[in-house]
Amino acid sequence: MKRAERLSAILDLLAESNQVEVEDIVEKLAVSPATARRDLDSLASQRLLTRTRGGATIETVAYDLPVRYNKDNQTEHKRAIAQAASELIPRGAVIGLCGGTTSTAIASVLSTRRDLMEPSNKPTLTVVTNAINIAAQLAVRPNIKIMVTGGIVNPRSYELVGPYTDIILQNVALDFAFVGVNGLDPEVGPTVSDEGEAAVNALVARRAFAAYVVADSSKIGVRSFATMNGYVFSNLITDSGITQEQISAFEERGTNVIVAPPVEVD
């Protein structure tokens, strides 16, 4: 296993229980104790964990592990949601993608669509995003035009937030917007953990002809800190884990629910 792969694997172990011991790394990654300690020291120098006697913890780190290091047990569901979202997007559309793992999955699906890769004198797709990881992911596709909003980077999610973001978004018109969330409740609506991200998400949604919350079924019934004021929540794309009772609760409040069929994940 290469060093970069080991470091990522250690952060995966850390994300599972908020702490990891040298012995765990030795056993699960088949490395020596000296290598495990050096890897922990390297991650500590990047402030991705805090070293303890015999291991490491994230309890005293001043920020959450970035989304690319979070253990994601919903990959299959998010891939299904991403595929369903992609099928709504015609060639030539202008779309908004907020940050988050589900939106990143949408970007992955779009980056492999054959019709978007065909030669063209004009963009086959225009993507407006406040997520720098999504912009970097799509920037290698020459047919896709990328617009990054500007703003201050949230290190937890790679999303740009703040007044500079708002200024840019006030001057764009989107065909579709896809908004990721941390929680989704039929009564409260979509919520996220950061108030700055909530404000940007709401504005992106309002700038679109049609806006969709994209959330795997584990987010349903969960309430996070910040609501998306000014945004009328009317479309949801989720996975087959949603129950009929939950679908009915959303539909009774005027929300159109799209249940993505399962897809295979490599």
From TrEMBL:
| Domain of life from the UniProt record | Bacteria
Please name one Pfam family that this protein belongs to.
DeoRC
One Gene Ontology term of the molecular function aspect: DNA-binding transcription factor activity
Q: Which residues form the HTH deoR-type domain?
A: 3-58
| Alphabetical UniProt keywords | DNA-binding, Transcription, Transcription regulation
UniProt KW Transit peptide keyword: no
Say if the entry is tagged with keyword Transcription: yes
Q: Which PROSITE patterns match?
A: HTH_DEOR_1 (PS00894), HTH_DEOR_2 (PS51000)
Q: Which Gene3D superfamilies match?
A: 3.40.50.1360, Winged helix-like DNA-binding domain superfamily/Winged helix DNA-binding domain
Against InterPro entries, the record matches this protein to:
Carb_Metab_HTH_regulators, DeoR-like_C, DeoR_HTH, NagB/RpiA_transferase-like, Tscrpt_reg_HTH_DeoR_CS, WH-like_DNA-bd_sf, WH_DNA-bd_sf
Q: What is this protein called?
A: DeoR family transcriptional regulator of aga operon
Name the source organism. Answer: Arthrobacter pigmenti
Classification of source organism = Bacteria, Bacillati, Actinomycetota, Actinomycetes, Micrococcales
